[in-house]
TrEMBL record:
<feature type="transmembrane region" description="Helical">
    <location>
        <begin position="84"/>
        <end position="103"/>
    </location>
</feature>
<feature type="transmembrane region" description="Helical">
    <location>
        <begin position="150"/>
        <end position="172"/>
    </location>
</feature>
<feature type="transmembrane region" description="Helical">
    <location>
        <begin position="16"/>
        <end position="34"/>
    </location>
</feature>
<keyword id="KW-0812">Transmembrane</keyword>
<protein>
    <submittedName>
        <fullName>Cobalt-zinc-cadmium efflux system protein</fullName>
    </submittedName>
</protein>
<dbReference type="GO" id="GO:0005886">
    <property type="term" value="C:plasma membrane"/>
</dbReference>
<keyword id="KW-0472">Membrane</keyword>
<feature type="transmembrane region" description="Helical">
    <location>
        <begin position="178"/>
        <end position="196"/>
    </location>
</feature>
<dbReference type="Pfam" id="PF01545">
    <property type="entry name" value="Cation_efflux"/>
</dbReference>
<feature type="transmembrane region" description="Helical">
    <location>
        <begin position="54"/>
        <end position="72"/>
    </location>
</feature>
<dbReference type="InterPro" id="IPR050681">
    <property type="entry name" value="CDF/SLC30A"/>
</dbReference>
<feature type="transmembrane region" description="Helical">
    <location>
        <begin position="115"/>
        <end position="138"/>
    </location>
</feature>
<dbReference type="GO" id="GO:0005385">
    <property type="term" value="F:zinc ion transmembrane transporter activity"/>
</dbReference>
<dbReference type="InterPro" id="IPR002524">
    <property type="entry name" value="Cation_efflux"/>
</dbReference>
<dbReference type="InterPro" id="IPR027469">
    <property type="entry name" value="Cation_efflux_TMD_sf"/>
</dbReference>
<dbReference type="InterPro" id="IPR058533">
    <property type="entry name" value="Cation_efflux_TM"/>
</dbReference>
<feature type="domain" description="Cation efflux protein transmembrane">
    <location>
        <begin position="20"/>
        <end position="207"/>
    </location>
</feature>
Length: 285
C-alpha cells in the first residue's frame, strides 16, 4: 500500500468513526436511563456496552488520527502503534464489562426485580436499529485491527439488543422474567469470547510476535535453499501494526563466491511472504 492510499484509508476511517461515535453516545444515554426505568438488566447492560462503545470508538478515532502522523527522528516508525494499543484496550473492555454483567445477572437470579417488558422491547428495538446503522457505517472503512475491535463492540451490542427484544416478548406473553438475567449471562459470555480474540491478536503485535500468516521456519527453509553453505543465524518477523510487517535476517556466508547475497535473499523472502523488499533487512557476514 502506498502512502497516498494509506492516507485516504486513514481519513475515511476517521470520518466513519466520528459518525459512529456520535450516534453511539446519544443512544447510550437514552438506553441507560430507560434500562433503569424498565428494570431490565439486558437494557442496562446494553446501555453500559454502548457507553463503552462510544469510549472505544473515540479511542479508535484517536488511534486513527495518531497513526496518520508523520514519522519523526524520535518516532522512526511514526505513531502506528496507537492502533494495536487502542485495539488491546478495547479488547480488555470487552472482557471486563461483561464480567460485571455476569455478576449482576447472578444477583438477579437470586433476587428477581420487576421488569417492564414493553419499554424493554421498544428500547431494545431502537438499540438494534442504531447498532445496525453504526455497524454498517464502520463496515465501509478500511479493515484493520483497530476498526475490527470497534466493529466487535458494535456487534456485541447488536446481540444484546436483539436478545433484549426477544426476551421482552417472552416476558410480555409468557411471563418468563427469569430469561432477562439468563440472556444477559449468555450474551456476556459470547462478548467475552470475542474480546479475548481481539486482545490476543493486538497483544501479539505489541509484543512484536510473529504476525499471523507468517512462518519463520518457512523463511529459513527458503533462504537455506539458496546455497547449502549458508548458515542462518537469526530470523525475526514483527509488525508495527497489522498492515506493516518487517523482517530482519542474519546469515553467515563462508565463501566469497556467493554474489549479491543480500538482494537475492530479499527477493526470495519478499516473493514468498509478500513483505515489501524495503521492509526486509539482511545482514550477511
Amino acid at each position: 500500500m502506498n502512502s497516498n492510499e494509506e492516507y485516504t484509508n486513514k481519513n475515511r476511517n476517521k470520518q466513519l468513526l466520528m459518525w459512529a461515535a456520535g450516534l453511539t453516545i446519544i443512544f447510550a444515554v437514552i438506553e441507560v436511563v430507560y434500562g433503569y426505568i424498565s428494570g431490565s438488566l439486558m437494557i442496562i447492560g446494553d446501555g453500559i456496552h454502548m457507553a463503552s462503545d462510544s469510549a472505544s470508538l473515540i479511542l479508535s478515532l484517536i488511534a486513527t488520527i495518531m497513526a496518520a502522523k508523520a514519522i519523526t527522528k524520535n518516532r522512526t516508525f511514526g505513531y502506528k502503534r496507537f492502533e494495536p494499543i487502542a485495539a488491546f484496550i478495547n479488547g480488555l473492555s470487552l472482557i471486563i464489562i461483561p464480567l460485571y454483567l455476569i455478576y449482576e445477572a447472578v444477583n438477579r437470579m437470586i433476587t428477581p426485580v420487576e421488569i417492564r417488558p414493553a419499554e424493554m422491547a421498544v428500547v431494545g428495538m431502537i438499540g438494534l436499529i442504531i447498532n445496525a446503522v453504526v455497524g454498517f457505517i464502520l463496515s465501509k472503512g478500511n479493515s484493520n485491527i483497530n476498526m475490527r475491535s470497534a466493529l466487535l463492540h458494535v456487534f456485541a451490542d447488536m446481540i444484546t439488543s436483539l436478545s433484549a427484544v426477544v426476551i421482552a416478548l417472552a416476558i410480555m406473553f409468557f411471563d418468563m422474567v427469569w430469561l432477562d438475567p439468563i440472556g444477559s449471562l449468555v450474551t456476556s459470555l459470547i462478548i467475552i469470547h470475542g474480546g479475548i480474540k481481539i486482545t490476543k491478536e493486538s497483544f501479539n503485535i505489541l509484543m512484536e510476535g510473529t504476525p499471523e500468516g507468517y512462518s519463520v521456519d518457512c523463511i529459513r527453509k527458503n533462504i537455506q535453499n539458496l546455497h547449502h553453505e549458508l548458515t542462518i543465524k537469526d530470523v525475526k518477523v514483527w509488525g508495527v501494526n497489522e498492515e506493516e510487517v518487517y523482517t530482519l535476517i542474519r546469515v553467515n556466508s563462508p565463501t566469497n563466491s556467493i554474489k549479491n547475497m543480500q538482494e537475492r535473499i530479499k527477493d526470495i523472502v519478499s516473493h514468498s511472504t509478500k513483505i515489501p523488499s524495503e521492509n526486509i533487512y539482511v545482514d550477511v557476514n
